[in-house]
Design goal:
Length: about 160
């Protein structure tokens, strides 16, 4: 039986994710680059579901190769974040993101575990399985294999 899912996520889910991202951004001390870097790092894979290109643009701002002022970096980041959050995540971007996260476990998982996850990913692509099932599986792997970086990712919370 096919699940009722389109190529983009449910509008209510999108609005909730967007609101939570904005709320977490708004508690960052203004113009604190270290806090902004931490925010960006912890949202990396969630932002990838919105737009890998916009994620890269945000990363370039954080890298601050031009040595711009903290004020300018923070302000530009805020503007670019707003643009990113206007994009509704697509199934294609979600699959891409899940595969990126899955890559952290390629040396840990057995052949059968890898195949099971990839089969589930195909089912999700065909609307035969829900997205949350895959996220929960990755969250389980994150805990099992103690991937500290992934434990902080909001996409897995």
């Amino acid at each position: 039986m096919r699940l009722k899912e389109s190529n983009t996520i449910n509008l209510n889910e999108y609005m909730l994710i967007k609101r939570e991202c904005i709320d977490r951004f708004n508690v960052i001390p203004k113009y604190s680059i270290n806090h902004l870097i931490e925010y960006h790092k912890n949202h990396k894979y969630l932002f990838m579901t919105f737009s890998p290109q916009k994620l890269k643009a945000l990363g370039r701002l954080i890298a601050n190769k031009n040595h711009d002022s903290d004020y300018l970096v923070y302000t530009q980041y805020s503007q670019e974040l707003t643009k990113l959050l206007e994009i509704i995540p697509t199934k294609k971007n979600r699959v891409n993101t899940l595969l990126h996260i899955f890559g952290y476990f390629k040396k840990n998982l057995s052949f059968m575990e890898k195949q099971s996850f990839l089969d589930d990913l195909k089912k999700y692509s065909k609307d035969l399985m829900g997205y949350k099932h895959l996220v929960l599986k990755l969250k389980e792997y994150t805990q099992k294999y103690n991937q500290e970086y992934l434990k902080k990712q909001y996409i897995l919370k």
